[in-house]
Amino acid sequence: MTSRVIANDRPRAHHDPMTNTTTATPSSNTMAPTTTLDVMVDTHLRAYCEPDPDTRADLLAAVWAPTGTLIDPPFDGEGLDAIAAMVDVVLTHYAGHTFRRTTAIDAHHAFGRYEWELVGPDGDVAVTGTDIVEIDDDGRLTRIIGFFGLLASAA
Question: Rounded to an integer, what is the distance from CA 1 to the centroid of its chain?
Fold first, then answer.
C-alpha cells in the first residue's frame, strides 16, 4: 500500500480555498504561497498587536473563521472573543510592539507555515517564532499553532 502511495505521481484534482477553484495538479506536496494567504496571515499579525479593540475586532473577523482556534505556548483561545482576549495579554506585556512576518509562507493543501518576530518600538526583537496555519474551504483561518524561538539542532 505504501509503495502505491509513494509512487503515485498522477495528476489529481486540487481545490484551492484561496481562489475557490478546482484544478488538476501533480500530486506534489508543495503549493506556491498565494497573495491571498499572505494578506490573511499579515492581517492576523497586524490584529495581534492592534491596541484599538474595535479595529482589532474588525481585523480578526475579516480573516478568522468564527470558531477558529489560536494555540500558543502560554495560552490558547477558541473563537474571535477569546483570540481578542489573547491579544490583550500580549499588549499588556509588549506594549508598542508589532509582529513582522520574516519569511515567505510555505503552503500546501489547507496548511501553511511561516516565521515571525515581535519587534519593540526601539527596533529590538523581543521574541521570534514559527506559526503553522490552517485555513477552511473559504480561505479563512481556522487554526494557528505557534512555536516560540528557533528549533534546536539535532544532536
Answer: 33
Secondary structure letter of residue 104 according to DSSP: P
Q: How many CA atoms lie within 13 A of 23 on its CB side?
A: 10
Query: Whole-prediction pTM value?
Result: 0.77
Beta bridge partners of 15: 22
Q: What is the pLDDT of residues 28-76, one digit of tens each?
A: 333 334 568 999 999 999 999 899 999 999 999 999 999 999 999 999 9
- DSSP state string for 21-86: EEEEE-S-S-B---HHHHHHHHHHHHHTT---HHHHHHHHHHHEEEEEEEE-SS-EEESHHHHHHH
CA distance 6 to 2: 6
144 DSSP β-pair partners: 70, 133
How far apart are alpha carbons 48 and 39 in whole angstroms? 14
Q: Domains in the chain, please, with CATH?
A: 30-148 (3.10.450.50)
